[in-house]
Amino acid sequence: MTAATTLSDTRSIVVEEVFPHAAAVIWKALTDGDLISRFLMPPIGFAPVPGTRFTFQTKPAGEWDGTIHCQVLEVVPNQRLTYSWKGGHEGNAGYGSPLDTVVTWTLSPTANGTRLSLVHSGFQLPRNETAYANMSGGWKTVVPRIAPLLDQVH
After folding, report:
1. Pairing verdict, β 80-87 and 67-76
2. Do residues 89 and 64 touch, judged by C-beta distance below 8 A?
3. What pLDDT score does 153 carry?
């Protein structure tokens, strides 16, 4: 074992927010491509159907073209949506280094509405240190951006 191997660690980003809305309303925001593009990024080819492959496009870096490759892994309507989130290139270090992670959105009832929990798991440190740091802050701004959309969902 090398020193780098012994220091390797897997991390997850967790962001939770309670919204005064029914789970079905939040579910629509998480599974409608037009709404997703308003709080995250425009998904290309997304459908809330297991096995569906889709992409997001972000800022390219080095040998990475900025494409995030995703595949829907699990769909439990009004409860849980899980998809893979892969990107980067072996030739990159820092931003744009290889990333193979999973995003899980979970909805659970509360006394005043619904708790939305986002868990983005599988960050391998130190390799994904830059992605982990950037996305930790990023998800904390993305999740609250869902709130204004919910009053518009029908």
Report:
1. antiparallel
2. yes
3. 83
Q: pLDDT > 90: what percent of the chain?
A: 86
This prediction has a pTM of 0.92
Closest-CA residue to 95 (of 126, 57, 129): 129
Q: What residue type is 151 in one-letter code?
A: D
Each residue's pLDDT tens digit, 1-49: 444 444 569 999 999 999 999 999 999 999 999 999 999 999 999 999 9
Contact 87, 68 (CB under 8 A): yes
The full 3-state SS of the chain, as one line of letters, equals CCHHHHHCEEEEEEEEEEECCCHHHHHHHHHCHHHHHHHCCCCECCCCCCCCEEEEECCCECCECCEEEEEEEEEECCCEEEEEEEECCCCCCCCCCCEEEEEEEEEEEECCEEEEEEEEEEEEECCCHHHHHHHHHHHHHHHHHHHHHHCCCC
